[in-house]
Design brief:
Elements lengths: L1 E7 L4 H15 L4 E5 L5 H8 L4 E3 L3 H16 L4 H8 L2 H6 L19 E5 L3 E3 L4 H6 L5 E3 L16 H6 L2 H7 L5 E5 L5 H12 L12 H11 L4 E3 H4 L16 E3 L2 E4 L2 E2 L2 E3 L5 H8 L4 E2 L3 H8 L15 E2 L5 H15 L2
Parallel strand pairs: 1-2, 1-4, 2-3, 6-8, 13-14
Antiparallel strand pairs: 4-7, 5-12, 6-7, 9-10, 10-11
Helix pairs in contact: 1-13
Length: about 350
Amino acid sequence: MNGICTLANDNVYDQLIALLNSIESILGDMPVCVYPYDNNIEKITAEIARRPNVHLYQDQASIARWDQFFREVWATNANAEAHWQKICSRSYQQHGVHRFGAHRRMCAFDGPFDRFIYMDADTLLMGEVEQIFRQLDTHDWVVYDFQYTDPGHVYNINSPKLAALLPPEKMQSTIFCSGFYAAKKDSFNQEQRDKLLSNLKEGESEILYLMSADQPVLNYMVMRSERSVYNFALELPTDQKTGCCVTSSHFVEQNHILYDRGNRLTYLHYIGLSSSLFQEICAGENVEFPYRDLFLHYRYLYELENRPVFTEPPRSYLPSEPSLVSRVLQKIKSATGV
């Protein structure tokens, strides 16, 4: 059985509703499994209960297994703890690992779907997905992004071990963003996870980028296990491929679907935008950000009466200092390639 997966808690309640509505609008009754980021799930649990094709993952043994694996992965990195202590992230203080919970998307390898597409909660589905599932017939992993243009947000590019493990000619074809990908159930069994941990303990953990947590780990798992990766961004002809990120300002909206130079997007990723922005706008604060009205359309698709009406002048979501704006946009654009 095919399905779509996502990861959520109550902090992304509004984004989850928008994502689920976009999936239903385009794919109808496609089943969806929501993996809990943490225990802050009261609101999303109630929302999921209202949707017959959506269910909340509750296999506690599976969740505990991947929690332990994630802790063990980062315990192999000699620099991680000191680095996380400097930034004092709340997740590190609580769990000893930065962004603990983001890895629970990996529970999909134990989950209900034989083949699945994972989508971050801050995405919207824009197009059909048959072509993505079709590539799983001949590949282990399918993506559609431009993360290969920014390997520094996946790997420690200063590590001398990186080139030996992942030669430059292979990096482009294997690197991916963890916000959208397709894969198969049982992709990483216990024996395979143990082998990966053994390699990491032998020093390979130094190639992991410390600040993304789940993204470098997933990339390492796929790369080190020599899984075949198909990236539509690399395989499609130039005149057919599209961007996918909110930082691309040239997308054209038609009937609540985005097009890139005439080509329909597969998905839109609101990458780099804090969940607090979506909370604020749904609370009636007039915050401007790219493709805001598209988000509001899907968020309130079935409850138009609750869509916020703005009475105050709009304010930008961007930081006020030009240097910060430039750095934020540059980082995000470098990850999209568009």
